[in-house]
C-alpha cells in the first residue's frame, strides 16, 4: 500500500520523494548518487525522529487514525497462530466490524476479539468503518463466555472511533449490548489483556476493554469522546478539535501517568505504519509479558483485583 503522509509529515514526504527519484535514476544506469542518497536518508531519519519526539495530542489523534496503520487482522496474522474466526451472535447476524476467534500465542491457546477497519473503500463499508453494531458486541460476548468455559485467556485489540450511532443499532439495543459486555467482562474468571492499537473511542471501545492489563501503543488514543465531538459540544465549533484533544488527555502518555492504562508500548520511529513487522514484535512481547504476569493468578483474585483496578480510576472534588 502506498505510503500516505499526514500534514505535519510533509517535509519528510518531500525528502523521501527526492530519495526515491535519485534511487530510480541510479538504478536506471545513470550517475552513481549513492552518497547523496545516504545523506538525504540520514537527514530524513533525523527529521522524522525530531517530529515524532514532540507530537501534539491532535497529531497523535491523526496518527491513531492513519490509513496505513496495522489493524487487528494484521496483528492476528503477525502475532498469533492457528487463528480460526467465529461468526455471528446466534440472535441477529454477523458483524464484520468485530473479529472474534480462537488462536494460539506462543503455542498456548487464547481467545481473541478485536475491532476491524477496512483499507479500501469497499472494505471500509463492509466493516462499517470499524463501528460495531449490537450483534458485534453480542458476538464478542459469546466468545468471552466461551473463553471462560474452556479456561482460555482473552486478548482484545481496540481500534474503533466508537459504536455505530445509527437508529437501527439503537433499535437493536446498542446501549444494552455495551452495558452487558462491561458487566460480563468485569466478572470473567480468566486472564484478560486488552491493547489499544489505534483509536479507542467511547463505550464502543470500552465494551471490549475491561481487563486485568490494559496496554496502549505509543501513538494510540483512548477517550470518552472524539476531539471533534467534544469541540462541537463545548464550543459549538468542531474546528477546535485540536484544543479539545489537549484537554481530553487521550494519549498513551497521559493515560499511563493517570494510571488508566498499565503499559505503553513504544512504536517504531514514525509510527507502527512505517514498520508493521517491528510493531507486531513489540505487541507480541507486551501481550506475552502481561499474560505471564497474570496467568497463574487465582480466578477469584483476578475478578477482585480487576474490580479494584477500575474503581480506583478518576477523581472528584466535593464542594
Q: Would you give an account of this structure?
A:
- Helix content is 48%, strand content 16%.
- It is built from 14 helices and 8 strands.
- Strands 1, 2, 3, 4, 5, 6, 7 and 8 form an 8-stranded mixed beta sheet that branches.
- Strand 5, helix 9 and strand 6 form a beta-alpha-beta unit.
- Helix 4 packs across helix 13 and helix 6 packs parallel to helix 8.
- The longest helix has 19 residues.
- The termini are far apart.
- 39% of the residues are buried.
- The model has no long low-confidence stretch (mean pLDDT 91).
Features:
single chain; 319 residues; alpha/beta; 2-enoyl-CoA Hydratase, Chain A, domain 1; 8-stranded mixed β-sheet
Total individual domains? 2
Overall 3D geometry? globular
Structural class: alpha/beta
Our measurement of the CA-to-CA distance between the termini, rounded to an integer number of angstroms, reads 55 Å
Strand content: 15-25%
